[in-house]
Amino acid sequence: MAAQMTEDQTLLKDAAERYLRDSYDFNERRERIAAGHYSDPTQWQAFADMGWLALPIDEDLGGLGLGAREMAILAELCGQFLVTEPLIEAMAVSHAILGNSAQKESLLVQVAEGTLIPVAAIDEAGEAARLSPTTQLTEDSGQWRLTGSKQWISAGASATHLAVLANSATGLAWVLVSVDAEGVSREIYPTHDGRGGASFKFDVTLDNAQIIATGEIAQDALTAYRELAMVLSSAETLGATQAALDTTVDYTKQRIQFGQPLASFQALQHRMSNMLIQTELTRSLVYAACDAADDGHADRGRFARAAKVKAATVGRKVSQEAIQLHGGIATTDEYIVGHFFKRITALESWVCSKGEALKEFMALPAAQH
Amino acid sequence: MNASNPIPTDYETFREGVRAFLKDALSPELVRAGERTTSVFSDFEAGRKWQSILHAKGWGAPEWPIEHGGTGWDIQQRYIFLEECKLANAPNPVMMGIQMLGPMLIHFGTEAQKQQFLPGIISGDDVWCQGYSEPGSGSDLASLKTTAERDGDEYVVNGTKIWTSMAHHSNWIFCLVRTDKEVKPQAGISFLLIDMATPGITVAPFPSLDGEVEQCQVFFENVRVPVTNLLGEENQGWTVAKYLLEFERGGQHFTIELKKQLSKLHRLMTSETNRAKDDPTYAYRVAETEIDVMALEQTELRIKGSLSAGDNPGALSSLVKVSGTELGQRCAELLIEAAGQSAIPWQSEVLSPEYTGETAAPAECVTTMAEYINSRATTIYGGTAEIQRGIIAKHVLGL
After folding, report:
1. Cβ of A284 and B305 within 8 Å?
2. Residue contact B306–A1, C-beta within 8 A
């Protein structure tokens, strides 16, 4: 079923898909990751040159001023082509967080050019609630200081800068630090989705300009970031889910057992029909969540969480089925379908889990219409 | 909730108009018949009365072309009309004539057939039932054995039909019959319109699991039908039927009913009769179902959008049918859990719209058990869920 897109959205999708099909080879990706290179600087530069990094930035700040629907088009393709560069991370941070900075013009120009790669750092070790960090922003006789640590930051290996969520005397704060700054230590680790994670420790003195937002503005930015990230993670999951299904359909048409293609067996046909039904239902909800975000719909928070719950549930089921329907070949590293499965699994718990999204969904009453 | 296609103001004006009409036209008895509907059929007399009221208003068959009595509404207006009828608890008229046979007659019928049959369908004066399935031919419909042999200007029909909903209230039946046994099964079937008063027809109603009578078996013994009652060409009945099946599947908007069930669930969850209040998983399961209903609603809107753009949703109506019916079953399961033992009393008279006395079950649980029982049929009739999955595998996935 065709998704209704504007002409501009179709052009964006077609061009991006053509680029990734031609230039983002699965086997090159495998070799690169095996060599410890979690992102490819020439790819990132190409993303910048094609305008992808400027896409979520307001027009008056030199960006293209596009919304969640366009970001989701790219996110879906990231899922389909297993892009390891932190595109959804950077889009969410530049759209929802960096625009609050007093230095937003210069920061966002650097993001659009590809020289500043921002990733949000929220999670911490220990018992602290996820959204009430122990990392502290403190002031001592006019001098700002960031102390604490962040753990399990997806694509932390590829970031040049972190938007760090901290607590301060006036509540939550967002602070921008370079990963190379003095007083920042980064421990990079390989990940099952090939993205390369990192944990960070901070004991940094800051310029005022590095404090992006505090208090209520920081809280609003956190809400906006989380909701956009839920939508984009759902979109990337959707892209990987569709790709896992397509790969399975193609494979079962080719694979001969008992003298006939696997696809001719009704037990398998009905399972693939279920995969398709659930993937299409997810697609509808993900696009609706994008539209709700772009229209400022009163229920946009509910839609974002609903999309996250649905995509996480369906992505898990479909990618597990994809492996089962392939058989042994899907359990090997050299075959692509298991890589969709691993990326989908990593996205399940990115930003929030399905269960957390469901709980938050239940706490948000539906707007009356 | 409609995030992708905000409704322009003139649709809101239309909605107001529909609402005002319904408020005026629906008597308490008709509303009671709507509230106590436990399957696709409401109380028969109430449904028939409602059809005559709709017809008098000019809204008897909104989907038909204007020249045959349609309203000329666009897809969105038809959706709003259905939604408001559901919210106002209007009863469901017997819909086989309007929803199924009508489009068929308009597409395949001769001028004489249209003039003879369409007015009686839209007014509700004629009640039609559908004679497709047979005891030996369910999902494998093309294997049907009821025969029609040509004898002069008549066909002579012999055989039996089953799952003929509302046959005991119908004065006409549209049937698939075998007119050629020598060719492959689909190629030897014809479509006949048969007057139920013709000698040789016997109707045997039987109760369903919920104890109510909606289903019948119909027997044909040397039933003589004029050849002018053949719809389409002889042996083209399968083509006619396939067109009909698409209407049966694609013409349904499941989320209108599902959202109504969800609001019932929410009401029940906060009522003192909620038997699931000590189940810590219950609220989560309701919320997950709600999210799935949102996903289906957005899918229906996408299909509606592609229909407006002139595309044929084709096999995607199978996707909606499977999802809509299975979600309806999930809602019915959740309702039965919240009702607990209070749903078990069986009090048949309560379902009558005239009944205003005491109910054994709490008011909000009166229909719960029957709805749950009847929901099991939804993945069987109109092409089973397995048939639908087969259609998706073949026509969407190309397996």
Report:
1. no
2. yes
Architecture of domain B252-396: Up-down Bundle (1.20)
Hey, are the CB atoms on B302 and A306 less than 8 Å from each other?
no
Q: Does B252-396 match B128-236 at the fold level?
A: no
Name the minimum distance, in Å, from the CA of A245 to any CA of chain B: 10
Architecture field, domain B128-236 = Beta Barrel (2.40)
- Any idea which architecture A218-363 has in CATH? Up-down Bundle (1.20)
What top-level class would CATH report for the domain A7-117?
mainly alpha
CB contact under 8 A, B4 and A288: yes
Helix/strand/coil (H/E/C) assignment for every residue in chain B: CCCCCCCCHHHHHHHHHHHHHHHHHCCHHHHHHHHCCCCCCCCHHHHHHHHHHHHHHCCCCCCCCHHHCCCCCCHHHHHHHHHHHHHCCCCCCCCHHHHHHHHHHHHHCCHHHHHHHHHHHHHCCCCEEEECCECCECCCHHHCCCEEEEECCEEEEEEEEECCCCHHHCCEEEEEEECCCCCCHHHHEEEEEEECCCCCEEEEEEECCCCCEEEEEEEEEEEEEEHHHEECCCCCHHHHHHHHHHHHHHCCCHHHHHHHHHHHHHHHHHCCCCCCCCCCCHHHHHHHHHHHHHHHHHHHHHHHHHHHCCCCCCCHHHHHHHHHHHHHHHHHHHHHHHHHHHHCCCCHHHHCCCCCCCCCCCHHHCCHHHHHHHHHHHHCCCCCHHHHHHHHHHHHCCC
Chain B: residue whose CA lies nearest to A355: B284
Check CB contact under 8 Å for A264 and B399.
Answer: yes
Q: Which sequence spans correspond to the domains of chain B?
A: 9-93, 128-236, 252-396
Q: Quote the pLDDT of residue B247.
A: 60
* CATH architecture of the domain covering A119-214: Beta Barrel (2.40)
Q: What is the pLDDT of residues B310-366, one digit of tens each?
A: 666 677 788 999 999 999 999 999 999 999 999 999 988 988 889 989 998 888 888
- Does any CB of chain B come closer than 8 Å to the CB of residue A6? no
> What band does A305 get if pLDDT is binned at 50, 70 and 90?
very high
Task: Write the pLDDT tens digit of every residue in B366-391.
Answer: 899 999 999 999 999 988 999 999 99
Contact residues on chain B for A10, CB-CB shorter than 8 A: none
Q: Which residues of B touch A369 (CB under 8 A)?
A: 1-2
pLDDT over 80 at B177, yes or no = yes
Taking an 8 Å cut-off on Cβ atoms, the answer to whether A306 and B296 are in contact is: no
| pLDDT over 70 (residue B8) | no
Task: State percent of chain A over pLDDT 70.
Answer: 98
How distant is the Cα of B153 from the closest Cα of chain A, in angstroms? 45
The one catalytic residue in B83, B84, B214, B248 is B248
- Interchain contact A238–B (C-beta under 8 A): no
Instruction: Report the C-alpha gap between A192 and A151 in whole angstroms.
Output: 16
Smallest Cβ distance to A272: which of B287, B319, B397?
B397
DSSP-based three-state secondary structure for A115: coil
Query: Tokens 């009702």, residue?
Result: B339
What single DSSP character describes residue A365?
P
Rg from Cα positions in chain A = 21
B-interface mutation test, from A281, A362, A369, most B Cβ less than 10 A away: A281
Indicate whether A341 pLDDT > 80.
yes
Instruction: Return the pLDDT at A1.
Output: 54
Instruction: Provide the CB-side half-sphere exposure for B144 (13 A, CA).
Output: 31
Of A1, A2, A306, the CB nearest to B294: A306
Domain boundaries defined on chain A: 7-117, 119-214, 218-363
B248 catalytic? Reply is yes
What's the N-to-C CA distance of chain A in angstroms?
Answer: 28
